[in-house]
Amino acid sequence: MEEKPQRPGPKRSLSATRIVDAAMELFDGESPSIRGVAAHLGVRPNTLYTYLPDRAALERALVDRLLAEADPDLLLGRKGWRKRVEDYACALRGVLLGRRGAAALLHTAPMDGPTAALVGERLLAIFVAAGLAPDDAARATYVVIVHVLGSATLTAADLNGRGEEAVVAERMAIQMDAQYFPLTAATWPVVARWNTEDQFRWSLQVLLVGCAGSA
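RESULT FIELD:
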């Protein structure tokens, strides 16, 4: 007796979340096109425009996803306020360095999605609770964001896909001329580690101490 062909299962319904999931899978140095994401999902490009009207909207959604991957809940809890800011900042740095082109994307696409708003609100609340006036809390929030993005961008460029310690070892092998660059030569073990997480944490802690001093 001939078996009846099985009907294909129901297709998963599209959503903005599923589209961003697909875009993240395709992200490799730069954001994918709407056409590329549509092909990955097996739908027509016009289908995606219902959820994300253009590539700019897709990039905005990708930025928001990167911020979410760093886990904004790190900004909550009973830890000291500086530790909470440091934990989220380091997590975001890790996310941006873990995906080629991610740090650069945050320089070209706006950070105005729902997760960006949530992160901003939680940073503001932390600084206000730490004793800063609301206007100063807003400035401190911006300082933290700029520090993370700037540091991650410079580090990504220097690492170029290599591990932090590999780059440190490469730099430590360089012999600085102490006659012409005495201070650089004397501090070279520290200079060679400029793009490490240790350096990032140190500079962030200094920034936070400065912000606390303005309270």
